[in-house]
Write a structure and sequence with these properties.
This is Sushi domain-containing protein. The protein is mostly beta strands. It contains one helix and 28 strands. Helix content is 9%, strand content 38%. A hairpin with a 2-residue loop joins strand 18 and strand 19.
Length: 281
């Protein structure tokens, strides 16, 4: 490597470091110009600042996979809000949405003339074959819908204190569908965690959320050689609590391998495991 090339490399390296430090100082990262086939970006640059919005278009005989004939995306801390993609004008992108149904084949693009079949979700039926056809780059509208079998539940699942349901709310729940409850810590489901829609009613609902952990009293047994607490506390299952050793006593920490004035206890299987401080005269 010649001296001239060496200095050129050194200058480029320093400029790169300065650019990285500048981005770190600002708290935001820039985006590189996205590359994709059969399309272009406006305005065209190598790098784009955080918050920059650009438009993209496709070459003749191509189109954006989602938008009509142009698309838009924004740089957000080094990542673009979407990935641009140009497909053949006669191809179709994502299929239409059929409530309570899913396409039999899920892929990014579909060829012209393809007939896509939809299957109803559990608890729903149609009585007819539901399909949409990709015709010259556009989907035809499905003629039929999926209807709930039996008697659906039109009211939301029963509320359980200190709990949520792990799936989004629906205005209607099909016969034989279920929801799952989850309690906020330190609570735990008491009984079954599921509720089922049967004949228009919710059955098998959890009894409630039970506090799961250890109740630690203010007064501690003298055998542990730790000070009494200012007040009783509750320690959630699996969590730790700190205790102060009595004067003249210290607790041996097996992790750091030294003696300390503060001892650590833990709640396991709803039983508080107290630490024991040793005499340190």
């Amino acid at each position: 490597m010649t001296v001239r090339r060496f200095y050129l490399f050194l200058v480029l390296w320093i400029c790169t470091l300065i650019d990285v430090e500048t981005q770190r100082d600002s708290g935001w990262w820039e985006c590189q110009r996205p590359t994709f086939d059969n399309g272009y970006i406006v305005p065209r640059r190598e790098m784009y600042e955080h918050g920059s919005t650009v438009q993209y278009g496709c070459n003749p005989t191509y189109k954006p996979i989602m938008e009509p004939w142009w698309g838009e995306m924004t740089c957000r801390n080094g990542v673009w809000s979407q990935t641009p993609s140009c497909i053949d004008q006669k191809q179709c992108g994502p299929p239409p949405i059929v409530p309570h149904a899913k396409p039999l084949v899920s892929q990014e693009t579909y060829d012209d003339g393809l007939k896509l079949r939809f299957l109803c979700e559990r608890g729903y039926s149609s009585g007819y074959t539901i399909y949409a056809t990709c015709e010259n780059g556009r989907w035809t509208s499905p003629k039929y819908n999926c209807r709930a079998q039996g008697r659906p539940c039109l009211s939301p699942p029963p509320q359980v204190k200190y709990a949520v349901i792990t799936s989004p709310y629906q205005s209607e729940y099909a016969e034989d569908s279920k929801v799952v409850y989850e309690c906020v810590r330190p609570y735990k489901i008491d009984g079954t965690k599921e509720s089922w829609c049967r004949e228009g009613k919710w059955v098998s609902t959890p009894r409630g959320c039970r506090k799961y952990g250890c109740d630690v009293k203010q007064e501690i047994y003298s055998t542990y050689n730790v000070q009494d607490l200012p007040s009783a506390v509750f320690v959630a299952e699996g969590e730790s609590h700190l205790f102060y050793c009595k004067q003249g006593f210290r607790w041996y920490n097996h992790t750091s391998r030294d003696y300390q004035d503060i001892a650590e206890g833990q709640c396991k299987n709803e039983h508080m495991i107290y630490p024991t401080c040793d005499y340190f005269g």
